[in-house]
Amino acid sequence: MAKQFAHIEPAHAAFIAQQHIFFTASAAATGRVNVSPRGTDAFRVLDPNNVAYLDQTGSGNETAAHLRASGRLTIMFCGFEAAPMILRLYGQGRSLPRGTLEYDAVLAAAYENQETPGARQIIRLEIDLVQTSCGYGVPLFDYKQDRATLRRWAENKGEAAVAAYRGQKNVFSLDGFETGVTAVEPALTD
């Protein structure tokens, strides 16, 4: 039986803290719906109606494009271990680009001013509905460990090369929506 709440209750926050993965779902008014898995090491409950995650550079930037177009965002957690439950956070999301005052404020307050290599933006969700459901159909999985591949990729490329990659791969969504990332012009040589 699904239950709805106006904000994250303490039991919800405890459930979130036990998870290793969450999923984001976003869409513009037209085009494709995007669903992405994320590691919870980057996720923070800011207060009962606001959450954020430190987003890493990837092969696309669909969530940021959809947030610019519509702002709609759903974040879902599933209990893959222990007690079954599905928890969804619904609301309006925003992308906070690196280097902005709001990004810096959230980074300081929620991440102790620590960015992981390849950090691209912070996605912030203002929650208007929390819903839980039984999760009885969710299979049991055992958590093994986090992957270090993306971190190593960003460390090996270096900040300038990662920024150039974002400028090539993260400027537009699959459907051509702007993400807020600007293209990096190639350096002029003599």
Give the full name of the CATH homologous superfamily. Electron Transport, Fmn-binding Protein, Chain A
Could you name the CATH topology? Pnp Oxidase, Chain A
- C-alpha Rg, in Å? 17 Å
Number of strands: 8
Overall structural class, as computed from helix and strand content, comes to alpha+beta
Kindly report the average pLDDT value.
Answer: 94
Number of domains: 1
- What is the CATH C-level name? Mainly Beta
**CATH architecture level-2 label:** Roll
Itemize the secondary structure elements and their pairings.
Layout: E1 3-5, H1 10-18, E2 21-27, E3 33-39, E4 43-47, E5 50-56, H2 62-69, E6 72-78, E7 86-97, H3 101-111, E8 119-133, H4 149-157, H5 159-169
Antiparallel strand pairs: 1-8, 2-3, 2-6, 4-5, 5-8, 6-7, 7-8
Explain this structure.
- The chain is of the alpha+beta class.
- It has helices at residues 10-18, 62-69, 101-111, 149-157, 159-169, and strands at 3-5, 21-27, 33-39, 43-47, 50-56, 72-78, 86-97, 119-133.
- The chain has one domain: Pnp Oxidase, Chain A (Roll), CATH 2.30.110.
- It is 25% helix and 33% strand.
- The longest helix has 11 residues, at 101-111.
- It is globular and about 50 Å long.
- The N and C termini lie far apart (67 Å).
